[in-house]
Fold this protein.
Amino acid sequence: MKATWEKIDKNLVSIDVEIEEGQVAGALDKAFKKIVNKVNVPGFRKGKVPRAMFEKRFGVESLYQDAIDILLPEAYAGALQETGVEPVDRPDIEIEQFAKGQSFKFKAKVTVKPEVKLGDYKGLEVPSSEVSVSDEEVAAELERLQQRHAELVVIDEGAVEQGDITVIDFDGYLDGEPFEGGKAERHTLEIGSGQFIPGFEDQIVGMATGDFKDVEVSFPENYHAEELAGKPVVFKVKLHEIKRKSLPELDDEFAKDVSEFDTLEEFKADLAEKLKVRKDQDVQQEREVAVVEKAAETAEIDIPEAMISAEVDYMVRDFENRLRQQGMSLELYFQFSGQDEAALRAQMTEDAGKRVRNNLVLEQISKDENILATDEEVDAEIEKMAEMYKRSAEELRDVFIRNGNIENLKADLIIRKTIKFLLDNSKVATEVA
């Protein structure tokens, strides 16, 4: 195989590839074996048609597309390895020559990572806060623990209040006609969560178990379903059940139940220490974000849209996974938020651009400063992960190797070491937090 490349635009590269005739012949053989089992020729059992008879009847050209499909993926991957080109998007392939008895020639136009011209990245001034923990913060943490350990008590008598968990049926109508996506049975809704469109949850307040009510609301003007945007609708609601949180008393017994301490005062002291550790970690993360953004601000990069689009794809998938963990689908989120996927992607685009820019800058700094991840550091990281996930290091290492993710782990370590390098070479501006 021969592969050469040339830059044809700022982030666009053209790769010319030629595959030897012998490989073309081999691909045609494979294509014939694949196709011959699917054709019927009078006088021959399926799969037993001679090659010459097949080509005479159907033409050798009938094998070309399958042969190209066999050759192209491996040839393109080999061309990338030979030329060292790093694409960030799918290639635009142009077949220039393919025929029996000839070499296979194709051209691949690919978008590549942009050139990064770094600005100043040493001696950057990064704020750092002195951390303290107030009594109010400890009290707020205790309240969160109370909420987490609260019992849900079914309320047989009485009416819905803010914060209650309700189980409802609802059926939505627009101009007296039911609309798509407006119906659900035994849906769990926490009043005050903002899960439904504005005004819906407030009107559930005051209902009692078994009650029926017409809830009148209007969809937001920017709602993703055009036929509902800004329109007044009626939801016929039935309330099946009310559950209310019963909070435990904040006393020594509570401390014993939720911790290893015997008294509430001991538990509060431990909470204060843990809150300080958490705030220290938050300050460190803020400093890391700040130093990276400052380094990125002074860099010159022309980022391809393909890289930003790919990052938005990743962010949407991550958002969908987090919704699933909360028991909600992306489609349901769109219904209740009034957004559609295009609006969500537009909302994420600016942040995606920053992420891509920051990563490109960190990669370039790591190259310029020769920051690497050693085998010992990779081993130490796997050991740490093994302890976290309660699995053996050997098992985790096998998983990384089997899935081809060792290089990704190394890349992550290099990025973290590069951020540390930036902080180690920064100036500290102290604040009190």
Notes: Residues 2-111 form a domain with the Alpha-Beta Plaits fold (CATH 3.30.70.1050). The two ends are 62 Å apart (CA to CA). The chain has a mean pLDDT of 91.
